Amino acid sequence: AKSAALVENIGYAEVNLNVGCPSDRVQDGAFGACLMREPARVGDCIKAMKGAVAIPVTVKCRIGVDDQDPEKALFALAEACVESGADALFVHARKAWLKGLSPKENRDVPPLDYALVHRLKRALPDVPIAINGGLTRIAEMQVQLQFVDGVMIGRAAYHDPALLLDVDPRLFGQSAPVANLFDAVDAFLPYVERELAKGERLSAMTRHLLGLFAGMPGARAFRRRLALEAVKPGAGVETLLGAVNEVRTAIARLAEAEAEKPANAEPAEIA
Ligand SMILES: Cc1cc2nc3c(=O)[nH]c(=O)nc-3n(C[C@H](O)[C@H](O)[C@H](O)COP(=O)(O)O)c2cc1C
Questions:
Q1: What residue owns the CA closest to ligand 1's atom 8?
Q2: Is residue 249 part of a domain?
Q3: Exposed/middle/buried for 47, CB within 10 Å: 0-12, 13-18, 19+?
Q4: Residue 127 phi/psi, 5° resolution?
Q5: Residue 117 in contact with residue 131, Cβ under 8 Å?
Q6: What is the ipTM of this complex?
Q7: Is 60 exceeded by the pLDDT of residue 271?
Q8: Are residues 33 and 111 in the same domain?
Q9: Residue 57 reports pLDDT greater than 80
Q10: Residue 109: is its pLDDT beyond 60?
């Protein structure tokens, strides 16, 4: 409850209790996925948090841990959360195996069971439920949205951020907030400038952009330039813009090559 109040005071719109992380450190602190075994305690936490804040209190969980029966474990946890006033559930649709797997393996190895999460939604129709785990394509998300209220995207958003440009048009029927990846970088610049002015290193921000132009001409040069130059002391916005320019130039070169070649030739190769 104390942490929730801190989160609210900082200005966050929601506070989420982690009942999904399998790491040893988190287990040692008795939070994360090991709480799947203690629905009553999770319920007490939710009640205390709800009593301390006005913002929504939500829970992110797994479908079970170790040898738990997911059908029982997930439903018991979800019901405890709902009875205690949780405002929404985010379910990573696989178990966490708390012994023997690294956190990374725990994001891939235990099998996904989307159907179980769909059954949970049918059992708790009034509770907002979002599904998470292994979703990488908008079309897959559209399928999930026939069964649940939301989808949560983890690694795909990070490795292929361009995916997010399609979210508003294809999932919400609205235009994207920015038209393309170049505009997305421009929209990011004021943040970069603000953080640089506070003394943050450019690479701390650009390391999260390395996947931005994945699959496009010049993507490799973009990554290489950021990897080499953004770490240098004093690297600024111009370093980021220079790297973006690698992509613009490669696209322009490709377009020129396409324009010059005879009509029946093979497409020009992507650099
Ligand atoms: C580097 C990394 C850090 C993560 N940290 C958290 C975390 O702090 N809290 C959390 O609930 N999930 C965390 N996750 C898990 C994701 O939220 C998500 O449940 C998981 O990656 C499965 O979804 P995906 O297949 O869409 O990536 C993390 C995932 C990655 C790759």
A1: 21
A2: yes
A3: middle
A4: -100, 125
A5: yes
A6: 0.98
A7: no
A8: yes
A9: yes
A10: yes
CB 52 within 8 A of CB 4: yes
Q: 90 C-alpha to center of ligand 1: Å?
A: 12
Q: What is the pLDDT of residue 34?
A: 97
| 180: exposed, middle or buried (Cβ count in 10 Å: 0-12, 13-18, 19+) | exposed
pLDDT at residue 263, rounded to an integer: 74
Q: What CATH number did the domain enclosing 115 receive?
A: 3.20.20.70
Task: Write out residues with Cβ below 6 Å of ligand 1.
Answer: 18, 20-21, 60, 92, 107, 132-135, 153-156
Q: Does the pLDDT of residue 112 top 90, yes or no?
A: yes
**Ligand 1 centroid to 23 CA: how many Å?**
12
Nearest atom of ligand 1 to the alpha carbon of 152: 26
pLDDT at residue 188, as a whole number: 97
Domain carrying residue 74: 2-133
How many structural domains compose the chain? 2
- Nearest CA residue ID for atom 17, ligand 1: 154
Domain finish residue from 95, 117, 133 = 133
Q: Is the pLDDT of residue 268 over 70?
A: no
Q: What are the strands of the beta sheet with 150-152, ordered from one edge?
A: 15-19, 57-61, 88-92, 129-132, 150-152
Per-residue pLDDT tens for 172-205? 999 999 999 999 999 999 999 999 999 999 999 9
Does residue 76 fall inside a structural domain? yes
Ligand 1 atom 13, closest CA: 21
CB 70 within 8 A of CB 22: no
Residue 81 designated active-site = no
Task: Please state, in angstroms and rounded to a whole number, the distance separating the CA atoms of residues 271 and 265.
Answer: 18
